[in-house]
Specification:
The protein is built from 9 helices and 7 strands, in the order E-H-E-H-H-E-E-H-E-H-E-H-H-E-H-H. The protein is an alpha/beta fold and 207 residues long. It has a single domain, classed as Rossmann fold. Strand 3 and strand 4 form a beta hairpin. The longest helix has 23 residues.
Length: 207
C-alpha cells in the first residue's frame, strides 16, 4: 500500500463534523482543508478570496447561479465579467485536486471533495450527523443566539449544502449510499466518534 490517505468529511450543520475532521487530520498527520481551499482557489485563479467566500457551498449557491461580478485580486475595484457558478465550482475543484496531489495525506471538509477525488486511491468518505436538538444546542453555544435563530440557521445551512452537493455530484447529500460511513456524533460524543472512525481507517488501510 502506498502512503496516500484521503479522508472526506461531509457534515450536517452543528453536528461537530468539522471538529471530528480536525481530530482525524491530527491523528493521521494529514493536511487539513476546509475554507483553506478557498484561499488556494483564489491564488490559482487570480480572483479575490472574498468572492469565493461569498459564493461558497454554505452561502451563495443558487443565490446567483448564472452570472457574477468578478473581483480581481490585482484591482481596487470590481472587474465586470460574466462568470457562472459552474466556472466557480471548476476552479474550486481544481484547487481541491491540486491540494490532494501536493500532499499524500489530506482531510477535506465538504465542498463535494468526495466526488472530485473519487478516482483517488485509499480514500474514505464519511458523513457526520446528529439530532436536530443537539445541533441547535451546539449552534447556540457557538453563536449565543436564540433557539429559534439556531434552528433557522441549521435549516437554511443544510438546505444549501444539500442542493450544492446533489446538483454537482448526482448523489444524495447525507444518504448512506453516498458515503463509506455515516455516524451520529451525539451517540458517543465528538472525541469518541473520531476514535471509532480512526479504528476504521487503520483497519481499512492497514495503518
Amino acid at each position: 500500500m502506498d502512503n496516500e490517505l484521503i479522508i472526506n468529511v461531509g457534515r450536517q450543520l452543528g453536528s461537530g463534523g468539522r471538529a471530528i475532521a480536525e481530530m482525524l487530520a491530527k491523528r493521521f498527520n494529514c493536511q487539513f482543508y476546509d475554507k483553506e481551499i478557498l484561499n488556494i482557489a483564489a491564488k490559482e485563479s487570480g480572483f479575490s478570496e472574498k468572492f469565493f467566500e461569498q459564493n461558497d457551498e454554505q452561502k451563495g449557491f443558487f443565490k446567483s447561479l448564472y452570472n457574477f461580478r468578478l473581483p480581481m485580486m490585482s484591482e481596487d475595484h470590481f472587474y465586470n465579467n460574466t462568470f457562472s457558478q459552474e466556472s466557480l465550482y471548476q476552479l474550486q475543484s481544481e484547487a481541491i485536486m491540486e491540494a490532494a496531489n501536493k500532499s499524500s495525506r489530506c482531510v477535506f471538509v465538504g465542498r463535494t471533495a468526495d466526488y472530485i477525488l473519487r478516482e483517488k486511491k485509499n480514500i474514505l468518505n464519511i458523513f457526520i450527523t446528529a439530532p436536530i436538538n443537539k445541533r441547535i444546542e451546539n449552534i447556540i453555544q457557538r453563536t449565543a443566539c436564540t433557539k429559534e435563530k439556531a434552528k433557522n440557521i441549521i435549516e437554511k445551512g443544510d438546505e444549501i449544502r444539500s442542493k450544492y452537493y446533489n446538483y454537482y455530484t448526482g448523489k444524495e447529500w447525507g444518504h448512506a449510499t453516498s458515503y463509506d460511513l455515516c455516524i451520529d456524533a451525539s451517540v458517543l460524543g465528538i472525541e469518541e466518534s473520531a476514535n471509532i472512525i480512526a479504528i476504521l481507517i487503520k483497519k481499512r488501510f492497514q495503518l
